[in-house]
Amino acid sequence: MIKLRAGFVQLVDAAVLIAAADRGFAEAEGVNLELVREVSWSNVRDKLNLGHYEAAHMLAPLAIAESLGLDYARVPLTSLLVMNQNGNSILFGNETYAALLEHAQGDLDDPAVSGAALKKLIEARAKAGEEPLTFSMTFPFSSHNYLLRFWTAAAGIDPDEDIRLVVLPPPYMVDSLKNGHVHGFCVGAPWPSMAVEAGIGRIVHFGSDILATCSEKVLAVRSAWAAENRDSALALTRALIRSTVWCATPENRVELAHILAAPSRMNLSPDLILRALEGRLRMDANGRIRENAQYLVLSSAAARPDVRQGLWLYAQMVRWNQAEFSSSHMDAVNACLSPELFDAALCTMARKTVLDDGIGAFSGPAFDPTDIPAYLAALDPK
Fold first, then answer.
1. What is the pLDDT of residue 354?
2. pTM, whole model, 2 decimals?
3. Cβ atoms within 10 A of the Cβ of 130, count?
4. I want to staple 217 with a disulfide (CB 3.0 to 4.6 A). Which of 26, 32, 83, 86 is the partner?
5. CATH code of residue 240
6. Is residue 331 part of a domain?
7. Domains held by the chain: number
8. Are the beta carbons of 131 and 177 closer than 8 angstroms?
9. Mean pLDDT for the chain overall
10. Does the residue 113 lie in any domain?
11. What sign has the CA pseudo-torsion 372, 377, 380, 382?
12. pLDDT by residue (tens digit) across 250-306?
């Protein structure tokens, strides 16, 4: 039996990893998979980098940043598979949402309408001498950061000057909103729903409103470890693919919700988790329900690492001055999101057909991974 340890953060999108361990898919592949719950992405990153974990539930942009050396150290990582697409929400505190509503001209479910209203709200606050609005996200190298930036920039808001973006671990988001430290946040399930249940916030957008398709979390391993332990990496990948197929089956959602709700896993209400798995979220304290099958995507078709997705995330790093553009960086992104191990583990799986550019952003030019400078040049100046 191969003994492996993996870290995860208390989020619904850890489902594939948790089910692999708790429903026997790892054991069936000869893997004794021990899972450790962490509070923050920095903890997960550090323990993976230092070899305390063989694998980790990880933000896709963070895996790229580690491979590029953009964080505190350069540790090339390999993505065994994409654990999920999408899964985030943008939530505002009740008072901030009420103020946003006053400036809205149209349906706030439209990100162009909500962005325009937010710009007016920001201008009104500045005129009144009030401090900038503060929004939290989970990590500088995260889709949460890029979703907030893409949405606000499309409305003519400078996310580095007109608002404040701060980093908070996912489990701390709700308390920070409740205590008035932030006006809103972007985070994965179930934390936006927790704020709604507590009566302190209102979901403004699903992440899929901003980007139709976004590789959110990957199961990351150190590239050097994968090279030295290829058989173990392949066994773990097979277990994860089997788990993905099971998790993606609608008939299994109730059982999956109870597995995730366990005290050592998420320690939360199964009903709250089930709603996220179904893409059926309560938006506000009045009980408005919104359903969207693309809210959180767990599927075998989406599990295959997609370099195009990685290059879009890298383009955001360049856009927001986290990285320089270079061919060597693109090579590192290609290596981080290479499907080679995935394909070797269980042949080639069909890719999901999405919008033409594979990203589906609600605004701006189509993304061409072969010409990132042209894509960046076509965007409005931030």
1. 26
2. 0.91
3. 10
4. 83
5. 3.40.190.10
6. yes
7. 1
8. no
9. 93
10. no
11. positive
12. 999 999 999 999 999 999 999 999 999 999 999 998 999 999 999 999 998 899 999
